[in-house]
Amino acid sequence: AERAQEALDRGCFSHRAYLMLGHARHEMGDHPGAIETYQSYRQRLPYLPAIENNLGRAHEAAGDIASAEAAYRRGLSIFPGDPILTGNLASIYRKKGDADRALALYEGVDEGARTAESHHNLGLIYAERGDLDRAQDSYRKALTLDPSMGEVRYSLAGLYLLLNRYDDAVTTYEGFLGDWDGNPAYVRRARHRLAQLYPVVGDRAMALGDLAGARRAYEGLIELGEGTAQVHHNLALLYQREGGVARALAACKQALALEPKLAQARLTLGGLLEAGGDRKGALEAYRTFLGLWTGKGRIAEHARERVRALERGVEREPGTARPK
Questions:
Q1: CA-to-CA distance for 152 and 148, rounded, in angstroms?
Q2: Using an 8 Å Cβ cutoff, are 221 and 199 in contact?
Q3: Cβ partners under 8 Å of residue 104, min gap 6
Q4: Which among 163, 171, 175, 172 is positioned nearest to 134, based on CA atoms?
Q5: Radius of gyration of the chain (CA)
């Protein structure tokens, strides 16, 4: 930027210098400076559509939508049908709530000439109108042209959510969070969506016997800071089914640290301690479960059976008396 400014200060006319200075100021957030640069450039070359496009972008970044629209219109008067200027003008109409004019402009551009941004905005309009298949097709075309567009992944994840494709939504939100370094509001929203999706995906995977899928969802909740007692207990049951007794025991203890009166976790703890040879600890866990559990049925009878069996075993240990 400094070298470009020095060249212009010396009276040298250079397309490269103007473009470099305008771009640098724009990227540094100096939008008024970028506008001034492009306006000076336009005075020298009033019939160059690329200048109007860059000027419009600078006005947009500065929040002056009316001036941005005027710049794009001037550019199109010089070069009618230019796909970049058309897409940018359509984006202005969409921001102003004029979806019909925006859609007409986007669809009027030959598909092969559309930019990734145009495909994305077109997809947003289709999604707003409930045409989810066409929205998905537009998002995918945008990503084909520019796989780095994180905002498209964010939009696609939301579309999967609307389509009840929860696993795809989770995967896409995760991919978005792994790459996105832009507006932090998108990060907060994506994390919030995952916090809603993980329990649904995890419970469904657990019911289907998909232990890897369930583990990924429950551990994802913990990474988000949403590790409730029930989540840790679910992981304890999962690790137990996988044969990881030590991990299951740690998860179960964490669940009880968060919610000491979680009866199901006490029952699980009893089974884990018994499997590990800690009969006294298991007996205490089963008794605590029965003191907390208000229901009947097989689960309560199982706990009572384990208490009776363990009491007989504990009685035979030297120096141990059966509680009265």
A1: 9
A2: yes
A3: none
A4: 163
A5: 31
Do residues 24 and 4 make contact, with C-beta atoms less than 8 angstroms apart? yes
Q: Half-sphere exposure of residue 276, counting CA atoms within 13 Å on the CB side? A: 20
For residue 112, the 8-state DSSP code is: G
Which two three-digit tokens encode residue 87? 């897409």
Mention every residue, 6+ apart, whose C-beta is less than 8 A from residue 234: 202, 203, 206, 214, 218
- Cβ neighbour number for residue 162 with a 10 Å cutoff: 13
Q: Is 260 helix (H, G, I), strand (E, B) or coil?
A: coil
Q: Report the amino acid identity of residue 236.
A: A
Spatial distance between the Cα atoms of 53 and 56, rounded to a whole number of angstroms: 5
Helix (H, G, I), strand (E, B) or coil at 276: coil
Nearest one of 98, 105, 106, 146 to 123, comparing CA atoms? 106
The amino acid sitting at 161 is L
Query: Quick count: other Cβ atoms within 10 Å of Cβ 133?
Result: 10
> Interior CA angle at 132 toward 156 and 105, to 5°?
90
Digitized pLDDT (tens) for each residue of the chain, 324 residues in all: 555 455 444 445 456 666 777 777 888 888 998 888 888 878 877 888 888 999 999 999 999 999 999 999 999 999 988 888 998 998 899 888 888 999 999 888 888 888 899 899 999 999 999 999 999 999 999 999 999 999 999 999 999 999 999 999 999 999 999 999 989 999 999 999 999 999 999 999 999 999 999 999 999 999 999 999 999 999 999 999 999 999 999 999 999 999 999 999 999 999 999 999 999 999 999 999 999 998 878 999 999 999 999 988 755 554 444 444
Q: Which residues contact 226 (CB under 8 A, 6 or more apart)?
A: 195, 198
Query: Do the beta carbons of residue 256 and residue 276 sit within 8 Å?
Result: no
Q: How far apart are CA 19 and CA 185, in angstroms?
A: 31
